[in-house]
Amino acid sequence: MKKIEKTAISIRAVLTNYVKAIRYLQGIEKNGEPFTIRDWMRGVREDRPNGWLFISSNADTHASLKPVISMWLSIAIRGLLGDGREP
To answer: Ranges for the Type IV secretion system coupling protein TraD DNA-binding domain (predicted)?
Structure first.
């Protein structure tokens, strides 16, 4: 039972970090097509001119955004590795 409690506390701590970071994403790009990293990566692989993608943060929000930035990078890398083509 003790192990289950520790696992639950650990999961809650991880989720709390991600949920805190999500508040910074509200209201982005209300007009136009929604942006997704997965679609952007797909375009790179299909030789569409997508340009550069910069992911930045300022000192005030960096600690909160770190989990989201890690998630975006993970999505981008998995998109490249999962499409089945050779680099």
So the answer is: 3-82
Q: Are 73 and 56 in contact (CB under 8 A)?
A: no
The mean pLDDT of 34-45, rounded to a whole number, is 70
Those residues with Cβ within 8 angstroms of residue 35's Cβ, 6 or more apart along the chain or in another chain:
28, 29
Distance of CA 87 to the CA centre of its chain: 22
Paired tokens of 15: 């989720």
Q: Which two tokens stand for residue 48?
A: 């569409």
* Residues counted in the chain: 87
Nearest 10 degrees: Cα torsion 46, 50, 52, 57: -110
